[in-house]
């Protein structure tokens, strides 16, 4: 089965101009009083396209053109897709928690760019840092401590009474399970429905009480946790970038490495992949497909589903209808 265009975001992003930006971006910069652009460079493409912008005044900004509305992380809500507004809201909440994150200079939407229609964009402050993704990162021991500190900062601030729209939000683990259960029913995946029921029974048997929801980043890695060495040579935290996977949830669902939390995250990923497959094949009736990189989403499906079979949550690995 060939993938619909909405599911081939990576290919479409790769085809975007490397040294140009949409006219709506230029108009936004002009309205904010920025001087003429001196240099535009496409930095990388993943689920989105990231550009570095340099102005005649030597000022620099980061531009992100948002390709995917559905990412590859375990926690998601199809009704609350990745958007410029969700990234901006997550950035504000992180700053309120006391974290250094890039300031969002502006958001907007390009009517048409390349093969895309209605492309959201975010313009950010460029953070000066020593981190160069996949090339220069903090030493492992120091990075692990920095990430632990970031988690502590975020989990220390309850968002129980805080407005967090348009971010995905689940007040407790059962709300998230009900959501997965609904998706499984929608695509008539009986074994996933049963797995959700088993998981719910397991959580209730364990007598787990709900923790208050907090902001979760979902991608705390050496490319997003920007760091630099100080005068003594010890690495310090500069800023946390890439907030497109942000959700508001009980932090155990995102971070706990014990059971059943590990299996719950695996079940969430398998359910998402199966939903994407069902939507692609027409088994799920939906007006507009969420833009995503389906090939990247499904590449670990067999391994993830096999883990659930091994742990007794699924009876078998259901094949996907992709060629």
TrEMBL record:
Organism field: Durusdinium trenchii
InterPro entries assigned: AGP_Transferase, Aminoglycoside_PTrfase, Kinase-like_dom_sf
SUPFAM superfamilies attached to this UniProt entry: Protein kinase-like (PK-like) (SSF56112)
Pfam families in UniProt: APH
Transmembrane segments: none
Protein name: SET domain-containing protein 8
Aminoglycoside phosphotransferase domain: residues covered: 50-251
């Amino acid at each position: 089965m060939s993938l619909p265009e909405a599911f081939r975001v990576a290919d479409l992003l790769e085809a975007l101009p490397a040294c140009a930006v949409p006219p709506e971006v230029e108009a936004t910069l002009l309205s904010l009083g920025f001087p003429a652009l001196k240099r535009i460079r496409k930095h990388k493409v993943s689920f989105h396209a990231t550009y570095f912008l340099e102005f005649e005044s030597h000022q620099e900004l980061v531009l992100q053109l948002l390709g995917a509305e559905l990412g590859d992380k375990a926690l998601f809500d199809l009704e609350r897709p990745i958007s410029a507004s969700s990234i901006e809201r997550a950035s504000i909440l992180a700053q309120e928690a006391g974290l250094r994150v890039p300031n969002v200079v502006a958001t907007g939407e390009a009517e048409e760019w390349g093969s895309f229609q209605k492309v959201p964009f975010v313009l950010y402050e460029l953070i000066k840092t020593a981190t160069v993704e996949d090339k220069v990162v903090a030493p492992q021991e120091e990075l692990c401590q920095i990430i632990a500190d970031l988690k502590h900062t975020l989990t220390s601030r309850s968002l129980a009474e805080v407005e967090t729209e348009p971010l995905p939000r689940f007040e407790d683990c059962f709300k998230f399970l009900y959501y997965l259960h609904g998706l499984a029913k929608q695509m008539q995946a009986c074994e996933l429905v049963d797995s959700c029921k088993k998981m719910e029974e397991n959580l209730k048997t364990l007598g787990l009480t709900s923790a208050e929801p907090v902001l979760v980043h979902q991608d705390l890695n050496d490319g997003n946790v920007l760091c630099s060495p100080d005068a003594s040579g010890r690495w310090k935290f500069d800023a946390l970038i890439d907030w497109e996977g942000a959700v508001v949830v009980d932090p155990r669902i995102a971070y706990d490495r014990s059971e059943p939390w590990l299996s719950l995250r695996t079940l969430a990923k398998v359910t998402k992949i199966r939903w994407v497959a069902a939507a692609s094949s027409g088994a799920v009736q939906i007006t507009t497909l969420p833009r995503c990189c389906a090939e990247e989403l499904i590449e670990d499906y067999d391994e993830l589903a096999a883990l659930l079979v091994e742990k007794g949550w699924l009876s078998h690995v259901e094949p996907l209808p992709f060629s």
